[in-house]
Structure formats: structure tokens, C-alpha cells
Amino acid sequence: MPEARRIESLTVVVPAYNEAKTIRRVVESLFAVPFERRLEVIVVDDGSKDGTADALKGFERPGLQVLRHEKNQGKGMAIRTAIAAATGEYVVIQDADLEYDPAELPRLLEAAEEQEAPVVYGSRILREDNPASYLRYYWGGRLISLWTNLLFFSHITDEPTCYKLVRTDLLRSLNLTCTGFEFCPEVTAKVLRRGLPIAEVPISYRPRSIEEGKKIRWNDGVIALWTLLKIRLFG
Predict the structure, then answer these.
(1) Per-residue pLDDT tens over the stretch 29-61
(2) N or C: which end of the chain has fewer CB within 10 A?
(3) What CATH fold (topology level) applies to the domain 9-234?
(4) CA distance readout (Å), 171 to 132, 197, 231
């Protein structure tokens, strides 16, 4: 059996808006992971008012970039800014709130190598011992995944997951235009519309409450459903 092709470099994109309390811990955690390949971390401070970018002052590592939007433009726009600057072979999204553990990321890379997969998602659903999220988020996520599968005849379990690992050249070819939280279903829809498979691996998850700073709201779920349908029908 031929040896799996090794992925030599990874860009981790960290969109951040008013995450001064957690951003340094997230970046420190990323650089503590033994990736055993070239790591690039691009933090995009999306017009924060709490000194998010300042929280990283004095923290320097090879491969770390901190970019800043003067005005808040949305999570999708922050990710698009980072994708344009990425030099890694693959890109993965890391939220700045520590709901997702960076120690899980090597598993996504291993799946991409072993399956020669251009896209790998980390699924919270596939790991049974995860704590229950707030019901509206849990069932909202399940609904979005079901809707995705109905529209695209796919079999993914966790469309709204933050951990989306995508080959960089593919990501740039998708003509991504969304600027808000709907950016993530846009990626999913455009990948599936091309007939490309999405591999999944189980990951851990620590849900955050609105009081702790969770920013996504119920109407973002409605927009996600519409985004998936719109791309399925019109591209």
C-alpha cells in the first residue's frame, strides 16, 4: 500500500472580535501543539473595541501574523482576509473562544493525509462524550446538517463546526463572497456543489454561553439555511 502523502504546512486562521480575554491563550495553545510541520497562525482582529490585538503584544513566534480591520466587517470577511495572506498547503479555522481544542487539529491533518481528502471537518456529533450544548444551538446545528444533506445528497454530521480544514488552493477557487457567520455554510455548499467529498473526524467541544461571549444568534441559523439553498439552486 503506498504511503500517504504528507502535508508539509498548515495555516490556522483565527478570526477575533472582542476576544481580548482568550486570544492569547488560543494562540499559545496553537503553538504548543506538536504539528511536526510548518505552522502559520494568522489572527485577524476584526475591529475589536477591547484591545484584542494588543493582548498579543510581546508574544512573538515564527509564523505568527496579526492583521487588523479598522472597522468590524464580520467573521467571514476576517477569514477571507486571512485566506488571502495564507501560505500553508491547507487552511483551518480556529475560533478565538476556546470552545474547540487546538490539540485536536493534528487528527484532521492525519485524516486529510490518509484519505487524500481536500476537505476534512471536525465533528462534535461523532464524539459521544461531549457535553450537551444549549438546546437551541444543538438542534439548530442538527437542522443545518440535515438541510445540507437533503440539498446536496451528502452525509455530514456537523456542518456548523468551526473546524473546517480545506486545501488552500481549493478554498481560493471557491469565489467566496459572504462576510458574516454564513461564510461557513457557503464553504460547505460550494465544496459539495463541486461534487467533492467532506471527510469527518470526531472532536471534543466545550460550549460557551452568551454570557461568556458567544456571538452567534438564532437568525444566523436562518441565514445559514438560506445560504445553503441559494447556492444549491443558483451556485
Answers:
(1) 999 999 999 999 999 999 999 999 999 999 999
(2) N
(3) Spore Coat Polysaccharide Biosynthesis Protein SpsA; Chain A (3.90.550)
(4) 31, 14, 16
Distance CA(26)–CA(22), nearest Å, equals: 6
Beta strands in the chain, from DSSP E residues, in sequence order:
9-16, 38-46, 64-69, 90-93, 119-123, 164-167, 199-202
Residue among 17, 95, 26 nearest 64 (CA): 26
Cβ 10 vs Cβ 83: under 8 Å = no
Which pLDDT value is given to residue 218?
63
**Identity of the amino acid at 118:** P
Backbone angles phi, psi at 109, to 5 degrees: -65, -40
Domains in the chain: boundaries: 9-234
Distance CA 206, CA 211 (A): 14
Residue 43 Cα distances to 3, 40, 104, 114, 155, angstroms: 34, 10, 19, 29, 32
Quick check: pTM over 0.70? yes
SS3 content of the chain, % helix, strand, coil (to 5): 40, 15, 45
Listed residue (4, 3, 13, 9) closest to 35, CA to CA? 9
> Are 201 and 123 in contact, with CB atoms under 8 Å apart?
yes
